[in-house]
Amino acid sequence: MDKNTGHTMKMLFLLFLVMWNEQEGALAIQAQSRFGIVEPFPINIYPLEYTSAQVTCIAFDSQGVKVPSKILFMRRDQFNFFVELKADDNLSLKNRTEIQGNNTKLSVTLFIRNVTVEDDSLFGKLGSYECHAFAVGDVVERARHGFSVSVIQRQEIPVVVLPDDIVFQHDDGITLICNVTERGSLSTPLKRISWLKDGVLLESVRNPDPQISQDTLSPLKLKDARDGGKYTCLLEVLLRNIKAHNVSDTTMIHIAPWLPKPKEDIEEKAFKGSNVSF
């Protein structure tokens, strides 16, 4: 090996050391960053159809190396590409920034004003949800986290019905029956059914079966003025075996005024203009 060749190899070796040291330094800096989507993570939600819903994503670097700049909510389309969810008449986004220690934490909440089947991860035109977090200076997301929206449709929810408000007349007898008119999804457990009067529990049956009279609420028999008040039939269910939900109906029992009938007819004669008492 001549002198020039040796000098060239030495220079290449030194260049390799410089590049290796720079790479190690970059890796060391990157290893210090703990940027990501942090707890509480966005959760899978089960909103009822035609109600509102919200999901929050939080981006943070506990080491303070990276500063979060934005969080985007995305859904996959039929070609598996991401589509950004932007504010419109039914969607809104709220950003909140706070300082934890000396580091910036960014929270973004997605609000859905009126949930429909189109918002469902499986049955909407768009599919699964993710939130993507970006740091200052980033062109692509640095962290992402997926979640699902499972819309519980109205036909899945049982329905209970009581009669309209009733005026209780003297010598009347009233029987109140809580009718489960729609069972909803057969996969929805019925956990408890209860009678309440003016908010006070009267009777309760666990794991009711509306088809079997012994396994559901007994009818309420109302007999006199003391039975007036607000009656509620409350059915507690577990939609999709996950989401606790209460179904109820109420009725008011009004008591008609009446005077007791005298034991015998009373007749009193008087002249015009005089006072009479009974």
From TrEMBL:
Keywords in alphabetical order: Signal
Name by which UniProt lists this protein: Ig-like domain-containing protein
SUPFAM superfamilies: Immunoglobulin
Lineage start: Eukaryota, Metazoa, Cnidaria, Anthozoa, Hexacorallia
Domain Ig-like: residue ranges: 158-233
Organism of provenance: Desmophyllum pertusum
UniProt KW Signal keyword: yes
Cleavable signal peptide: 1-28
